[in-house]
Amino acid sequence: MSSNAAPVVEPTMSFLEHLDELRRRLTYSAIAIAITFTVCFVYSEQIYHFLDAPVREALKKQREIQLSDQQFRALWPGTRGRRLRKVRYEIPWNDVLIEIDVYGGKNNGLIVAEVEFPNRTACRKFKPPGWLGREVTGEKRYSNIQLGCE
Length: 150
Prior knowledge:
Helix content: 40-55%
Strand content: 5-15%
Order of helices and strands: HHHEEEHH
Number of domains: 2
Shape: elongated
Strand order of the largest sheet: 1-2-3
CATH class of the largest domain: Mainly Beta
């Protein structure tokens, strides 16, 4: 079987034409990067919170376990320089328990209230007492990890 198809001839470009093509592609790339940067800058806080959410959720989960005296003595020295001093008061309020932490030591004068809810609905329905300050949930400044490292 013979083929009568003509061979495909690729067009050739001169050196200057190659440079012109390169300049065109670099210009398009620079424009795309500038647009992407601008969009990311405008929405940076939302992007950060979206990417940070899994880490925040993992850190929020506190586990309290019972330690034996031996385990406590083994772990306690590793907390040197990061120990918090606080007194906790528990105040019942409309079907919830408000835990008030009054800090001493490096954080002397700081008072933080914490309320645990069984579900999101209970959280949304919660009407805080007038004496409760502003919401600081999610602010790193008030996390036990941050307070212990200051």
